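Go through this one:
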Amino acid sequence: MMVGELHAGDPRAAAAAGTARFLAQVDPARPVAVAAHFDADGLSAAAILVQALRAAGRLAEPVIVGKTETPWDGTFAARLLALAPGGLVLADLGTRPAAVLPDMPTLVIDHHRPTGTPPAAITLSGHGLEPEPTSALIAWWAVGALGDQADLLWLAGIGLVGDMAEGAGFAELADAQARWGKTALRDATSLVNAPRRTAAADAGPALRLLLACDGPKGITKGEGPDAEALRAAKVEVREAVEAARRVAPRVVSDVALIRFTSPCQVHPLIAQQWRGRLRDKIVIAANDGYRPGWVHFAARSASGLDLLGFLAKHRPAGADGRYGNGHAQATGGALPLPVWDSFIAGLGF
């Protein structure tokens, strides 16, 4: 499904043009609410957007999703409305057919497989482009509408490293590495990604550093409380991974299930680790300790199978928008326990 404006012609120019049209709809006396995911890509996209908007004289406020939260939850909408925004940006949060704030000028910046077309929104979706840009890179292209953003390129680099490690050959990453250092970008990305995997899932320290620093070494060499919080988060996540990786998989047909209990969001890391060892299996790492009464899971496979299609085929009754989003080779979801039991029974467990 091709959704949005980046698929015809130059996506960089299209991103800037779409952003200019979005801003023309927004009352400059009211803030732009920048809603974003809490991983390195989403946080970097938010930092790029907020800094560029503020530098251009616009009001902008970041709003980051919390643990188990989605933008389509009523509580999140209430947080957005409390800002009395004139416009809304959704960065790295998925592309769905439902509006987050109906009748609000909206710009969607995303690279996951769309599940529909947002009504009346300007949509900058990288899904289907080759190579596929991350949300932070699309955000950097987008704020080109506001002038030269060369000093923010390191943030786009963090988003690229966070979601695709080597950046899929984008020249922007090579430029960022040449200016700020490959190791510094990689280490900063690891630190920025850590808090969202902890039990508290507080991405506040990471966002504050991304907004305040002028390069990745401000994060890796920082000595303040936010930098310390990121280092502590890495230790907490490392210990949670070590505990979960000791759980042996159960295999039924072509599915390997690793189920464990942890308050940390380490199920994607466990799925990725076992993916390399069980290369002919669909690996599902399931965590029943992340949220009471729910099972959060990650699915990975080295076989090339379309995992979004696999989950769609096995979608249980009662699954909601938290199920089966993301990428063909990296997806997952969250299900209430009774629905989870139905799901795995359908898989033969």
Observations:
- The CA atoms of residues 90 and 169 lie 26 Å apart.
- The mean pLDDT is 94.
- Residues 225-244 form the longest helix (20 residues).
